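Model: You mentioned two targets. I'll fold them one after the other.
Researcher: Yes, keep them separate.
Model: Target one:
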Amino acid sequence: MKRVLKTNNLGLIKSTCSKQGFEPKHTTALLNTRRSITMATTRKIYIDANNTGLWKVKQTDESAKKASELLQHDLETHHVYFNEKGFHNHLVHHVLSLYGTGAPSSVLQAGYDNNASYQRARQPLHNDVVTNLIQDWSHAKAYLGKGEHYPDFLAFFQREIDAKGWEGVLSEYVFAGTEAADDMLVRLYAGFLHPLIQLLYGMEWKQPAIVAEALAQTCVHEPNFKEVLLESEEKASKTYGRTTSGHGPAGADGMPRIMKLIDEVRNDEKLRGAARMDDDNKIRDGVLARAPEEMLRVISKVKIRPEELDERTAEMFDASLYVAAAASFRFENKFNFFLMHHVNSSPIFLTFNAQPWIPVETKVRLLEWKIRYDLIQYAARGAPVLDMNEIKSYKPKDSKNTSVAGKSKPFKRPCQDLERLLGCLDVLTRLYHFEADDGHAIKLARAAVIQEALSKEYEDRDWLLLKGDDVWTKIHHMIVDSVEAPGEAWSRTVASDDTWTKTQIS
């Protein structure tokens, strides 16, 4: 039987793999035949109205057809970067985030149209390169990190997925733990996590073509911060040791709570001041250039036991969203562009954990890398002060609608009473008509809803920061209010520790 994300009532996601239920096998040949006809492939996008992602909202056949058409057009027409500077094409994320929050077909079309006009056209295929890759993957070294070879890598991975399935290809090329796979894993987390986010949508919607796009996108990124990520992993293993079973850190103490590590970054003066206004890259030229040992010391404390996986995943998601939300008060009530990506990428770890074909050791490793990168990014933003009281005292712009739930009841237990979360559409649907959105805002809003549902199981834990209907109401409003406010939708600044003024990133 195939393990899938268990849903209740209208189907909102509950938690991660170890606590999921099972989907029965198909019982009729007719259904099997129908699925074969409508199956998504490496060259065909097919979105089913019954698959709306982790937040299982109800959708229509019309919207499903529209999402499929738009994503097919993007696949056949556009490059992964919309300019020569390597700025990312977000059309897949945008369309599926809108679709996955219940948007009608007209909104999907408008969102696509608003952002398709400036995309780069699909670049020509180099058949000799594809042949070279097919002959031996080691030949990829000559092409990795080069945007002009995106079509070549896409064609290669489409072929590989056709032969092995997307699960098998991910296992071989990214999760295998070999030197070549680790190089791909580093690239997956590069580019402000964009390859990881692309993979999020491919896996969540089970689209082989989007998985192939994510792998090709991974290939054209540089292996940024490879040394520090691998060194911190090795140091963590040596520091914590391993149990006799070979799994996880030994000893009762284990890894500190994530917010304790955030506090370590914040309380280290050298780390806090490492990123500067004139740094071209705040991580490379700031944190890892001026405080490499200090950063390595903190991220080497990240080591997760397999039995902690589900709870640590929820903790990571909670910390990522809390940091992004609380830091917004240091940036004139604007969410920071870079911290926002760490929230938007977080749902993929629920999908990773729900895959029975991914070994638990690999799931743990993927999560550890995300937490380490979260800590590095927090330092790169100047380690801004975080104050829960500012979230609690936030006054929503729409004073007439200060509850995302209206008069609906709060959750009785995880994902059983869905009225409250469905009520947040009153706030979230304002983003359907936010013409300046290129997908970032609706991704953030969707991620917050998913985390609210996930957090309900852990409300008795001391580590959980975002809890209670009132706090979640403020979070949902903060996201939408932030992007709707005058000026740029996002802050691209570093917090100044001297005056808490903001210095513009170049």
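Model: Target two:
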Amino acid sequence: MLFTLIFQGNLNELQPVHGEDRQYSCDECGESFSQQVILRAHQRIHTGERPFCSGVCSKSFSQQNHLKNHQRIHTGKKLFCCDVCKKSFTDQKSLKRHQRIHSGEKPFCCGVCSKSFSQEGNLKQHQRIHTGERPFCCGVCSKSFSRQSHLKQHQRIHSGEKPFCCDECGESFSQQVILRAHQHVHTGEWPFCCGVCSKSFSGQSNLKAHQRIHSGEKPFCCDVCKKSFSHQSHLKKHQRIHSGEKPFFCDVCKKSFSVQSNLKAHQRIHSGEKPFCCDVCKKSFRQQNHLKRHKRIHVDVCSKS
């Protein structure tokens, strides 16, 4: 049985046609077609030619139907509607992807652990767990990540960007999850309670971290020296001892630090800020350990008298 491409601008749709002559052959790969127009569209795969250009944003495409799909971004036209929830989409591919939410279909399966996914992109992301691939690299410190979202999150360390803002007090945060935890300060909500000491927390992750105080569990282990930690953030901080990574940069003198708290302490040299004040003589200091050392003067004076 011969197969020919039914050309509606889409080279991926095949339909069997009995006994049809395929006289137009591609010089590059040898694939043959029944119509010259289909061959020309196919050849753009090899040449990289993109003759169909958007008049709005100048983005170009190899196939006319891809241009039509793209143009709906500008027009806002959404022709493809979900028959379950009536949500509409600009292209059929997006609709099919959405429909898997309702059907529960997960056609993309991992060949290593057999875990399945509703979207091909999620499968590719998952497979990096097995391969160890980290294709997203930071241009500042060269640290690499398996997900682009993790890279963007990391880059805010260098840029200082805090795009998530609290509506109540205006304080901003680098991560949405931190903003959500902060918002409990205003609502007073602490729904997660420790069964041992009855201490309550605004987030479940905070409760889990707290419970390790009681259990003594240290699940985060350094693969270099095997030292273990109760918090993942403590492990990350520790690993910089081995890697020599210093991702926290002073924007005044460009000096770098492995720990953010050290950067903050250093920045007070430039700002002149001295937030730690002695309650006896009112002398103030840039660092808390300097205040503690100073307080011994008063203790020694009292003990001598």
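Researcher: Noted. Anything on target two?
Model: DSSP finds ten helices and 22 strands in the chain.
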